[in-house]
Design brief:
Chain A is α/β, with parallel strands linked by helices and 328 residues long. Chain A contains 12 helices and 12 strands. In chain A, the strands form 2 sheets. In chain A, strands 6-7-8-3-9-10-12-11 form an 8-stranded mixed beta sheet, sandwiched between helices. In chain A, strands 2-1-4-5 form a 4-stranded antiparallel beta sheet. In chain A, helix 7 packs parallel to helix 8. In chain B, strand 9 and strand 10 form a beta hairpin. Classes of the chains: A alpha/beta (328), B alpha/beta (318).
């Protein structure tokens, strides 16, 4: 039997007001995350993946207009701000793309890590510093005992991301949201950080929601993946299944765009056109204008995310028909 | 066939620290590299941040003056050229930068941006220049309707197309593309890579393609040179480097690339520790502190290039 998901998002919608009108950054997202699993949210710039992450923690600058975010059985959208504060950094932690902007440049890293420990676990200053050094050791920061006294600028990008991870896992959260945690890093350092995330999950059984634009990172790290396009999840399933047999034309297009393993001269198969601009409303399926398989009705009717068997979901009218045919 | 571009012993050092300090130190951005690119060929230059690949690109374009070494373009030494003679060479080589937001003047229309090189080099009449702009826009997958617009009206991928049109304006022989697709989303990245490949074939361009992404570089290049801390550590045919990398750094770079294939999870453990500072370059082989194969000799003695298989490798232990 399957355990209860630790995070259960239903119909989540987040909107921004801009000069171009209402931007529907998150446009009806359903997503489950189970304890101890790593779920990848993959999509390109503007697909709404970061807005989704920020909405879960209610840190978004936009307006959450609909849906629910059930975390361990309670809807986070119903909580008072004070209750949210107790959760953030304790049960749900987040790490960001650029550790230089997410760390306080004027505070020693040990003290920053200690802040969460003192606030959530009520540790003494001394105990918090000692625990911070332990955490830095756990994330393999070289010379951790001495480094607790460093300021962020004294560390390299990879080391700062280690500090951010140490801070994220300091209260052993149930869920860690990592928003492009390796995008600013070189590949060899990225490999180290991905290993660290995987190792952390093994050790603490923390579930990880990993936001990334990199299909390679998803393939290497995630148990399940949700592909986002124009604010919606267009496909989700186990990583191995989605990569082996992608169902949504957008996923197929993304995989066809990567030069990995392709010989010279063998042309890439890019997705034609551009994603919709923020605020642009596309009638029917938002991907239809770029979709090589789109038919007339795709431009009129917006598809739902439907279960297509084997724990997989796709948001595509073509798949919907196939599913209905096989069901009847 | 003689190379279109050749660089010999190219060096760029920057003094760092106070001008009056006794401990004035040297940052060795590029520390003696040799390369040759033949007509119609693409050379891929790959390495992580700070390895000196962009500095090399800028020296080739003569946007930076080398500390030492020579740059030969079509047999002519252009290392110290200036004035009209430098301008004449520049017409024949152009650069495309990484950031399509920073490399286009926001106050100029696309037509002005693309026709600027033509004006600088006094090519054609106003009408001819305009016709050329329209032709170029079409060539890169835009059209004449875009000519009156400003860069902010375009997406990243379209802006990169504008940069490419500008680079092509004077019909150069050599294009240096410095991380041209790194700022773009994958689906758009593939469009721009395809465009560059088509252009190269149709216009018989020679290209230097610089990237940190070995999987992109292997796809577009005939030859790959791998840089580490200001030096080339391995150079050879693209497929040989990608499939039979010899240098331990190239190997770890390859194994660190997250492969978009869940059935092939990374086998080798990632490289330990971080890139040393180019101010404080390790003795001997500069890769030795991170190298799984390092021996005592590597600490003392810098390796020379040797032929191993189809490529040249600078390593004592291969």
């Amino acid at each position: 039997m399957t355990p209860e998901p630790i995070l259960r998002i239903r119909g989540l919608k987040t909107q921004f007001q801009s000069a171009a009108g209402v931007v529907r950054a998150v446009d009806g997202v359903d997503l489950d995350v189970y304890p101890g699993e790593i779920v990848g949210i993959v999509g390109e710039s503007g697909s709404g993946k970061s807005a989704l992450a920020f909405s879960i923690l209610r840190l978004t600058t936009g307006r959450i207009v609909a849906g629910e975010v059930q975390f361990r059985g309670q809807n986070l959208l119903d909580l008072r701000e004070a209750e949210m504060e107790k959760l953030r950094g304790d049960r749900i932690a987040m790490i960001f793309q650029d550790p230089m902007t997410s760390l306080n440049p004027l505070m020693r890293v040990g003290k920053q890590i200690g802040e969460a420990l003192r606030y959530h676990l009520r540790l003494s200053r001394r105990a918090a510093t000692a625990k911070a050094a332990e955490l830095l050791q756990a994330v393999h920061l070289p010379d951790a005992r001495r480094r607790v006294h460093d300021y962020p600028h004294q560390l390299s990008g990879g080391q700062r991301q280690r500090v951010a991870i140490a801070m994220g896992i300091s209260c052993t959260p149930d869920l860690l949201i990592a928003d492009e945690p390796t995008t600013a890093l070189d590949v060899t350092i990225q490999a180290q950080i991905l290993n660290l995330i995987s190792e952390t999950r093994q050790r603490t059984n923390t579930a990880v929601l990993l936001i990334t634009h990199d299909l390679g990172v998803v393939a290497q790290l995630c148990d399940r993946v949700a592909v986002m396009y124009a604010g919606q999840v267009v496909e989700q399933g186990r990583t191995a299944d989605v990569f082996a047999d992608p169902q949504h034309p957008y996923t197929i297009g993304l995989l066809g765009s990567t030069p990995h393993g392709r010989q010279r001269g063998e042309p890439l198969r890019p997705i034609p056109g551009q994603p919709p601009r923020p605020g642009e409303i596309v009638a029917g399926c938002p991907f239809a204008p770029r979709c090589t398989l789109a038919e007339e009705h795709c431009r009129r009717r917006a598809p739902d995310l439907i279960h297509i068997g084997g724990g997989r979901h796709a948001r595509c009218l073509l798949r919907t028909e196939v599913a209905y045919e096989s069901a009847s | 066939m003689s190379p279109l571009l050749e660089i010999r012993g190219l060096v760029k050092h920057y003094p760092v620290g106070s001008r009056f300090s006794a401990q004035r130190r040297i940052l060795r951005a590029v520390d003696g590299i040799d390369l040759a690119v033949h007509p119609g060929e693409t050379l891929g230059l790959v390495g992580e941040s700070g390895c000196g690949k962009s500095t090399t690109a800028r020296m080739i374009m003569r946007l930076l003056d080398p500390t030492a070494g020579r740059i030969l373009f079509d047999g002519q030494d252009i290392t110290r050229l200036s004035g009209a003679r430098l301008k004449a060479v520049r017409r024949r080589m152009q650069i495309v930068f990484q950031d399509p937001f920073a490399s286009l003047n926001p106050r100029k229309t696309v037509e002005r941006i693309v026709s600027d090189p033509l004006e600088i080099h006094r090519i054609g009449t106003a009408a001819e220049r305009q016709a050329r702009v329209y032709e170029l826009l079409q060539r890169v997958g835009l059209d004449r309707r875009h000519a009156d617009r400003y860069p902010h009206e375009f997406s990243g991928g379209q802006r990169q197309r504008i940069s490419i049109a500008r680079a092509l304006a004077c019909a150069p022989q050599l294009i240096v593309a410095d991380e041209p697709v790194s700022a773009l989303d994958v689906s758009i990245q593939a469009q721009v890579i395809n465009l560059l490949q088509d252009l190269q074939r149709d216009l018989d361009l020679t290209m230097i393609f610089i990237s940190h992404d070995l999987s992109v570089v292997q796809y577009v290049s005939d030859t790959i040179a791998v840089m580490y801390l200001g030096k080339i550590v391995e150079v050879g045919p693209s497929q040989a480097i990608y499939h039979e990398a010899q240098h331990p750094y190239t190997r770890s770079l390859l194994s660190a690339i997250p492969v978009p294939d869940p059935t092939r999870r990374r086998s080798a453990p990632p490289l330990e520790s971080e890139l040393p500072s180019p101010i404080n370059i390790p003795s001997g082989c500069r890769f030795h502190p991170r190298c799984p194969l390092a021996t005592e000799r590597c600490r003392r003695e810098a390796p020379e290039f040797r032929m191993v298989g189809a490529q040249q490798v600078a390593c004592h232990n291969i």
